[in-house]
Amino acid sequence: MGKPYRPKDHYFKKAKQEGLRARSAFKVDEILKRYPFLKKGATVLDLGAAPGGFLQILADAVGPNGRVIGVDIVAIRPFSQPFVKTAVLDVLADDFDAKLSELYDGPYDAVISDMAPKTSGIRTTDEARSLRLARKALELAVTRGRPGSAFVAKLFMGGEFEEFRDEVRAGFEEVKLVRPEATRGASMEVYVVGLRRKAPSAPAPVAP
Ligand SMILES: C[S@@+](CC[C@H](N)C(=O)[O-])C[C@H]1O[C@@H](n2cnc3c(N)ncnc32)[C@H](O)[C@@H]1O
Predict the structure, then answer these.
(1) Is 114 annotated as a binding residue?
(2) Does the Cβ of 59 fall within 6 Å of ligand 1?
(3) What is the CATH number of the domain that holds 25?
């Protein structure tokens, strides 16, 4: 049986004690401990970053010579570190790519998404919305990630989950699934981790 949902659970209290903005900070912390793909000085994009729990961990991981860009449809309380930049943006908006480029044009060493749709309670609808957000994150990881970069996206299991994993496999050398300890018991969410983005293939030679 899954762990019961308790809003003021262990991780909630631990986050408060440690001055973290959200319990979800422990999820990215665990992912980075298992797959330490972020080095000091790296540049990382955090999608769905409010209130900023992931951003706190990512800022520590890359340090002051790095760069962390966080976006969300909800405003994020500003960070004191100048290398953490945030903006209110909807990743599904038509002008998102242009707005992101204004903020920082890349390339990134990692693209991370903890985005979650507003749930409707209708499972298939929620899975489809979650997949749409994860696909947009993957598109950004492929177009703006350096060769060798990493990708992390949260996704609700079910629906086209397998197809999505194959799409990540097409762009990354290795693909892992992580269900962090801090994930609530009944939650269907899982993080798909893509390691070492493949270099874009060279165009096929033109026949003489
Ligand atoms: C689970 S919360 C993220 C928590 C965050 N990682 C943290 O550690 O503080 C999911 C976030 O996804 C954001 N989100 C949902 N749809 C979005 C969209 N279209 N564009 C940007 N952010 C979105 C929500 O506003 C919400 O803040």
Answers:
(1) yes
(2) no
(3) 3.40.50.150
